Amino acid sequence: MSPNMNCEAVQSFSPKLTVAKRKEALELRKTMKPLMEKRRRARINDSLNHLKSLILPLTGRDNNRYSKLEKADILEMTVRFLSDIPPINTKNSADSYREGYKACLQRVSSMLPKTSLDQDACQRVNAYVQQSMSSTVPPACLNCCAQSSRTFPEIQQRLQSLKSSFGSRMESKSRIIKAEEGNSSGNAHGGSVLKLIEEAGIIASMRHCNSQNRERCFPALAQMEKVDFLSPLSVGEIIHTTAEITYASKHSLEVQVQVVAENPITGAKRMANKASLWYVPCSLQNLGKVMEVPPIEYVAEQEAEGRRRYEAQKMKRLEAKPRIEKTVPAPFNPEPYTVGFSQSLLIQYLCYPECIAHGYMDSGVMMRAMDEVAGLVLYNHCLKKGNPVTISVRDFNFNQKLKRGSILTVMGRATFTSARSMEIEVIADSMPLSDGITYRCASAFFSYVIWDNGSVPLPPLKIEGEDEQRRFEEGKAHYLQQKAMRSAEK
Fold first, then answer.
1. Rounded mean pLDDT of the chain?
2. Strand-strand pairing, 269-283 and 217-229
3. 458 near 421, Cβ under 8 Å?
4. How many CB atoms lie within 10 A of CB 395?
5. 467-470 CB contacts, 8 Å cutoff, 24+ apart
6. Which of 25, 212, 272, 274 is 20 to 30 A distant from 69 in Cα terms?
7. Nearest to 279 by CA among 162, 391, 396
């Protein structure tokens, strides 16, 4: 082929190839344009949803109430919020530091009522905020760390030690409520909730008690001082359990546990349970030997408040010991609505599934058994009608560890009824098959209601004898005290 013919061939085929490529590129653009537009709209929607989640808490609005907002509403709300922010004036560093510090304190003070902190904690934080706002910050404090480089490593070391200390005092875990943990109404069984609370508490206390290089120990649950059931947990919900060590004496430590429920579909969260537990560390080599608790660091006010709670629970345990020594058997053929009519009994043999690695029964398993017996008492009192629901537990004292191979006997009896609630005393005894001696291992007071889209009225409890009358009056006094405390908190 000659060079002239080759050149002519290239010139004749080039325009056709160019037109084909242009058509292909045009078709590709037509195909990709909807996809690019879809991605662009998805980015806009994601950004608006993120903006909504940021702007609603800043404006003090509830996410659940404003779950559906137009895009224009979100943008207008953001514009109004940004317009309300005062313009920043150019000032020296000292004035800017003071104003920014006070603005942060004011923001903290305004957000305190919307948090889940209790009333005492809010008052302490608010008092500190007011004190900090009234005090003046000298300009010399602004650059103290920069001017003194020798103290900077000490500050870092101090912060690291505080971080490690705080980390060993906290324990958080999340999981889903399973179907086998629910009752007939689809809510989590009260005993299952108690078991979850005890698991979080023992993990936090075990890590803290073994945080130092010394003889290893295992924390034994001594008392569950109080448990509040603020909201029922439904099967399928996500629960977030947080346990924090709030006080440590020489041989015991207090663990505060909070349970937050989350709807996995809407993301809404609510406080479900609060509990206060006390643990005693025991040596792994000799479980009868009580170990010392590693100290924790806190301010003087927190230490004084913790000391007060420690002395109060210690006094309550001493007062509770004499009154739990006697077990009253159920009478033969009792009348309806009497204490003996609703009295319930559970007997269980402790084998390997219910025991922990050291040959003793898991405290959470025993708490669930005691909660089941308390529910049966109210169920029998109401002539086997309705759905019993736990609303609170108090004075849960653990006196003796349960060994593997023992027979557990749990007995519950009613002590007091109000118009819509019942208090049940539950005691647990164990008898090891090795010696055949019965030991009192735990006791507690459960408060129950019959729930049917709300608490329903209960039949009054018929009192027989001086002992039942005394228990009734004690339960009534505690009921009125708790009612007054709830009214004061409102």
1. 79
2. antiparallel
3. yes
4. 19
5. 467/328, 468/339, 468/415
6. 272
7. 396
3-state SS assignment for residue 405: coil
Counting every residue written for the chain, the total comes to 490
The residues assigned a catalytic role are 183, 371
Residues 6 or more apart whose CB falls under 8 angstroms from that of 367 comprise 191, 194, 195, 198, 224, 396, 444
Instruction: Give dist(CA 317, CA 225) in Å, integer.
Output: 10
371 Cβ contact partners less than 8 Å away, ≥ 6 residues apart = 189, 190, 191, 194, 390, 393, 426, 446
On the question of pLDDT at 214 being above 80, the answer is no
Distance of alpha carbon 380 from alpha carbon 264, whole angstroms: 36
406 has pLDDT over 60:
yes
| Summary count for the chain: helices (H), strands (E) | 11, 10
**Nearest Cα to Cα of residue 137 among 105, 111, 107, 159:** 105
Query: What fold is seen in the domain 333-490?
Result: Thiol Ester Dehydrase; Chain A (3.10.129)
Give the Cα-Cα-Cα angle 315, 319, 322 (nearest 5 degrees).
150
Q: Which two tokens stand for residue 203?
A: 């993990």
Rounded Cα distance, 34 and 24, in Å: 17
Query: Alpha helix locations (H) across 135-274?
Result: 144-147, 152-169, 190-209
Do 455 and 421 contact (CB within 8 A), yes or no? yes
How does pLDDT run across 479-490, given as a tens digit for each residue? Answer: 888 888 777 766
Instruction: Report the CATH superfamily, name and number, of domain 163-323.
Output: Hotdog Thioesterase (3.10.129.10)
The DSSP code for 250 is S
* Rounded-to-integer distance, Cα 425 and Cα 416, Å: 9
Contact predicate 405/433, CB 8 Å? yes
Joined together, the tokens standing for residue 172 give 């958080």
Q: What pLDDT is recorded for position 14?
A: 47
